[in-house]
Specification:
The chain is mainly beta and about 80 residues long. It contains one helix and five strands; from the N terminus they run αβββββ. β1 and β2 form a beta hairpin. The longest helix has 8 residues.
């Protein structure tokens, strides 16, 4: 999703409505957690082979082995936390 798409989607909501982010807890009951968004920032992500999903890169130790494949490139994105 692009920032422009997110802005367009949010325009139909009341400005005073709380924003939460939903994700699976990974538990036996398949619970979906939805904590309140506390910050929005620009961060770096890279595909994690182990998780089969993008992971947030905090420092060089978090980076996957240097790989020229496009799917493993570090990318700058907007992170909603």
């Amino acid at each position: 999703m692009k920032v422009s798409e997110l802005i367009e989607m949010l325009q139909c909501f009341d400005e005073d409505t709380e924003v939460h982010v939903a994700y699976g807890a990974g538990d036996y009951w398949h619970t979906t957690l939805a904590p309140k968004v506390t910050q929005v920032f620009t961060g770096s992500v890279q595909m994690s082979e182990y998780h089969r999903s993008d992971k947030l890169i905090h420092d060089e130790d978090d980076m996957e082995d240097d790989n020229d494949e496009q799917e493993y490139k570090v990318r700058r994105v907007v992170v909603i936390e």
